[in-house]
Amino acid sequence: MTHYDRITTLVALAGSSSSSIPLGWVIGAFVTVVLIAGCICILRNRDISRKRILVFFKKDERDEFDIDAFIRNHGSLSPKRYHYSDLKKMTNSFKDQIGKGGYGTVYKGKLTNGLVVAVKVLSESKGNGEDFINEVASIGSTSHVNIVTLVGFCYEGEKRALIYDYMPNGSLDKFIHYKQGSSDESCRLEWKTLSDIAVGIARGLEYLHRGCNTRILHFDIKPQNILLDKDFCPKISDFGLAKLCMMKESIVSMLGTRGTAGYIAPEVFSRNFGGVSHKSDVYSYGMLVLEMVGARKNLDSEVSHTSEMFPHYIYKDIELEKNEIIFGEITEEAESKIARKMVLISLGCIQTLPSDRPSMSKVVEMLEGPLHYVPIPPKPLLFSEEESAPMSQPSETG
């Protein structure tokens, strides 16, 4: 019975038995019912408003709910969660800084069990923490010798950090970005080591694309995101831009551009070149290997991260077998074969159309097979003959 039904009933009773019920009682009861109904409406509206206010002020707490949901859903598979006070203890109050970048700062630390770790403290929190959760979810579900191990993470409001196994040799870029004749030349790696690193990275990507229950597309393969352990075994790291998709999905939907200039596949910044897929990582891998063999070393540093600036002259030198221009001084035939194979495979990986690029499984097969099984791939469609003149100038003056 509604409030209005009750009021109508009282009025009817008052009319039918006015002789037995005083009129003042009836009026008092009527006023009481009206007041109660009004209070109920006010309290109900206040409750709705209160909920709206709480939602408004708790918008910034939704990240915490996301992390908690992740831990519940992944259970024992999720990395251990640490408090910020734990980070201070394991890093001796952030005493030993071993790296710094736009993402934040990396410190060397040690867990209570003696394990040496690298603690990446993110510099600022952007959005709703999607990238952070993405990285924890991506790496937390992997287990491969060529994927960095995520030991744990910290999430306390704006304080966010990732805890990895410590890699004594740092990132790959330190060993491929050096000036000849400088003290940095001691970082120069042997061709066999470079080849082993290329194979390891390829195996890591093959695992992400085919070995996981959920396919993981990295979208940011570059030298800075390849870590090297004490034996120079490569570990793919930094999954902040990664995208998880079903194994059956060949094309993924994606808003905006992901990656670093110079390593981004054409289809990622323009869908006119095709759909975004695991072949986008293949392109980035090809650019990375070209950089490893020194094929970009003769370019001006200001344009060295623009992929369209250099492949034409590489093709020209490959066809003329000018190995000394591309690879530097190589005296042994075995090293020359390694270098040439790496370049040919990488040129196949940077084909303009995704369908023309090999899978990472095929890349591993070619890297581990003989050189004569690796064909000279066609020149990518992006590079025209008109570009050849300005491209060859840096290699002649460098």
UniProtKB/TrEMBL annotation:
Gene3D superfamilies attached here?
A: Phosphorylase Kinase, domain 1, Transferase(Phosphotransferase) domain 1
| The protein's enzyme class | hydrolase
**This protein's GO CC annotations:** membrane
Membrane-spanning intervals of the chain: 23-43
GO terms for MF: ATP binding; glycerophosphodiester phosphodiesterase activity; protein serine/threonine kinase activity
Q: Which residues form the Protein kinase domain?
A: 92-382
Record keywords: ATP-binding, Glycoprotein, Hydrolase, Kinase, Membrane, Nucleotide-binding, Serine/threonine-protein kinase, Signal, Transferase, Transmembrane, Transmembrane helix
InterPro entries linked: Kinase-like_dom_sf, LRK10/LRL21-25-like, Prot_kinase_dom, Protein_kinase_ATP_BS, Ser/Thr_kinase_AS
Task: Indicate how the chain sits in the lipid bilayer.
Answer: Single-pass type I membrane protein
A Pfam family it matches:
Pkinase
Enzyme Commission code(s) on record: 3.1.4.46
- Protein transport listed as a keyword: no
Q: Which residues bind ATP?
A: K120
In which compartments does the protein localize?
Answer: Membrane
The signal sequence is none
**Which family does the record claim for this protein?**
Belongs to the protein kinase superfamily.
Q: What is this protein called?
A: Putative glycerophosphodiester phosphodiesterase, protein kinase RLK-Pelle-LRK10L-2 family
- Record lineage: Eukaryota, Viridiplantae, Streptophyta, Embryophyta, Tracheophyta
